[in-house]
Amino acid sequence: MIKVYGDIMLDRWIFGSADRVSPEAPIPVLLETNQTFSVGGAGNLALNISSINGDVELYGSVGQDKEGFKLLELISQTNVNCNATSEDVTTTTKTRLVGQGGQHILRWDREEQYKLRSCEERLLRSLEKDDVVCISDYKKGVVKKDTVEKILKITSKVLVDPKQDPDFYKGAWLVKPNMKEYVGWFGQFTKEKALLKMREYDWKNLVVTDGANGIHVIDENFNYNHFKEDVLEVADVTGAGDTVLAVIAYGLEKNMTIADSCKLACYAAARTVERRGVVTITKDDLKAKTVWTNGVFDILHEGHFKLLKFAKSKGKKLIVGINSDDSTKRLKGENRPINNQLQRKMNLELLPWVDEVVIFNEDTPINVIKQFNPDLIVKGGDYTVETTVGNELCPVEIFPTIEGHSTTSIIEKIK
Asked: pTM of this prediction?
């Protein structure tokens, strides 16, 4: 179970037009046209995890005020299991005044420090050793200096989006500061310094988000990766950090490596900042841009069709690599292929799931894979991740073999 703990907030958006300057002071006058509300802070993280992973529990505190009631009402309309206490005085509320064209004019905040521990106690009572705890800390008082220490006595999988001093998060499985927060802690980012700080604070994984410069990742084996995604146009960065942590938590639940999780998170965050407002990530946002699969594809059968349909479902574009006639003979023998490479290419291009077909003459498609740089490789069940060509370049998914269907068996029946 994934459990989210931290500072739950209400986001209020007041939209209007600002066509004149106030006669009382040199400030724009916003003529309101409408208001919208959304769940922010730890609540937004929980919504993102729920959208892509399903079950999630939310812990924190809201105030006994109209903003608190509004916040609980919004959460009740989602699939998030809310276990927040309602004992705070003031619900942290961020009100954004937005003019025509989406131009932010002002942000108005209401908040008070949370001084109690009731929500922490509620979380600790619910924890089990296999739970994943995502901490969304906005320095509003819910996360105390010993909160992570207490959680670690029950479960080791603690992921943190931090806002306080690094010693608040000693021993965490993953800590995800943005670059401004990292520099505030330790100065200029270098791999070498980051490794030293990981050891000092006993962090298993360190992920540093750096806006348009991507994501820096150092895992528990001290491997470094840097991921970066092109963005068509940055419309709004609000909530991008929640997207990243939500996808990493999702990857952890799906047994993905931290590197593959962060690569996927980087891609998903790039998609969300292209849309205005606080955007909840969807499973469609997790689809890879480009998926690759390859084979001979000589006599097409049910197993081929289901493999290709599965591969297409994983991304926006499916590229299929096929062995040339010469390559097929070296692989299958002098009597193969039955259909020449141009016929095989045309047959595949007629299928609704295939976007592009590439013929390669080498024994393996490694050079073509490097050329297209796919986000995901899909292969059939007679392969493993380790035996799939290109597994070192991007994630691999194995589609189970459809028993009783193969080109070889079709040829034998014909004989």
From this structure: 0.79
